[in-house]
Amino acid sequence: MADETFDVARLEGAVCAFGVFDGVHRAHRFLIGQAVAQARELEKHAVALTFDIDPDEVFHADRLRKLMTNDDRLRALADTGVDAVVAFPFTEAFAGQPPADFMQRAFGAHVPRALHVGHGLRFGARASGTVADLERWGAVHGMEVHAHTLVQAEGSPISATRIRLLLQEGKVSEARDLLGRPYRIVGRVVPGRGEGAQMGFSTANLSVPPACLALGEGVYAGYARIDGETYRAAVSVGVSPVFSGRTDAVCEAHLLDFQGTLYGAALSIDVTHFLRPMIKFDTVDELIRTVLANIAWVRQHL
Ligand SMILES: Cc1cc2nc3c(=O)[nH]c(=O)nc-3n(C[C@H](O)[C@H](O)[C@H](O)COP(=O)(O)O)c2cc1C
Ligand SMILES: Nc1ncnc2c1ncn2[C@@H]1O[C@H](COP(=O)(O)OP(=O)(O)O)[C@@H](O)[C@H]1O
């Protein structure tokens, strides 16, 4: 695991990969791999350089659908083979500077040896800074800039936006191909209406901020992790239409072979299969029969 002290002094002479890196998906990991390879060759530090929060949280909070929480993103970056992760504080004052000021503030005090970026990178006020700006600044200050074409899958670039669209449609296995790992839901278990147990299947209600639920409505299978233990799980995403008005849970999970209480626990679920859309059943009996059949499917296939 890399150093997570986020000390900007670590940029001095380092070979950096620079980006937001939501999802830390395959194209991100390729880019970071390029930086790590050059760092090893030059015997310099390899640094993943990012922001502490996703810029979209500041500028597009309304339509935000992140692939990862910021904590998970920083942890995943630390796990890519770099020596350190450096996160700039993403404030409007810092990120909203004209490109020239941004580069001076970001890199002026501790000039990196090289910066690896995606060729479409934008930064600074109104995202007006481009790779060409970085190259000009780099030429003056002794910082190489390597702009990479994004890794492609099935003829088009892998991007966080593309993965978000797949997830919104419930296409978890296509999303997994691009992410390089299953999509993960992270949340805390909160009390629900207390009716699940009577229906024959307890469900842990997960509190997940809408911005952190990129997955579309539907019923899924996956692996839930709690306190280092893994359980197979049947998961519903979206407010139950049968109980709409009486529940606001956006994610519920039944953990197979778990007994006990989960209230307050941090739960993560790696979602591996789409089972079916959410259904507005006419009767609760029909709902119970269908969910029990979904749970049986998970028992058999996972
Ligand atoms: C695997 C699974 C699938 C579900 N599918 C549906 C569904 O298709 N339609 C629906 O209205 N609710 C669905 N639910 C939600 C259940 O109705 C809900 O878990 C139940 O009402 C218990 O709620 P409570 O925990 O708040 O008491 C599903 C729940 C799970 C765990
Ligand atoms: N196998 C299980 N899967 C999920 N939650 C379980 C399981 N066994 C026990 N629980 C506990 O039961 C709670 C859910 O019970 P439930 O009757 O559905 O009420 P609630 O309305 O609080 O969701 C969970 O939050 C968890 O603490």
Explain what you see.
The structure is a single chain. It contains 10 helices and 13 strands. The two termini are 30 Å apart. It folds into 2 domains: 8-157, Rossmann fold (3-Layer(aba) Sandwich); 183-301, Elongation Factor Tu (Ef-tu), domain 3. The strands form 3 sheets. A 6-stranded antiparallel beta barrel has the order 8-9-12-11-10-13. Strands 3-2-1-4-5 form a 5-stranded parallel β-sheet, sandwiched between helices. Strands 6-7 form a two-stranded antiparallel sheet. The longest helix is centred in the last third of the chain and has 18 residues, at 284-301. By secondary structure, it is α/β, with parallel strands linked by helices. A hairpin with a 2-residue loop joins β10 and β11. It binds flavin mononucleotide and adenosine-5'-diphosphate (ADP). Adenosine-5'-diphosphate is lined by residues 189, 191-194, 196-197, 202-205, 254-255, 258-263.
The order of strands across the largest sheet is 8-9-12-11-10-13
Quickly give the CATH architecture of the largest domain.
3-Layer(aba) Sandwich
CATH class of the largest domain: Alpha Beta
Ligand kinds = flavin mononucleotide, adenosine-5'-diphosphate
Largest sheet: 6 strands, antiparallel, barrel
What is the CATH topology assignment of the largest domain?
Answer: Rossmann fold
Counting DSSP E segments of at least 2 residues, the number of strands comes to 13
| Gap from first CA to last CA | 30 Å
Order of helices and strands: EHEHHEHHEHEEEHHEHEEEEEH
Overall domain count: 2
Low-confidence stretches: none
Query: What percent strand?
Result: 15-25%
* Assigned CATH superfamily of the largest domain: HUPs
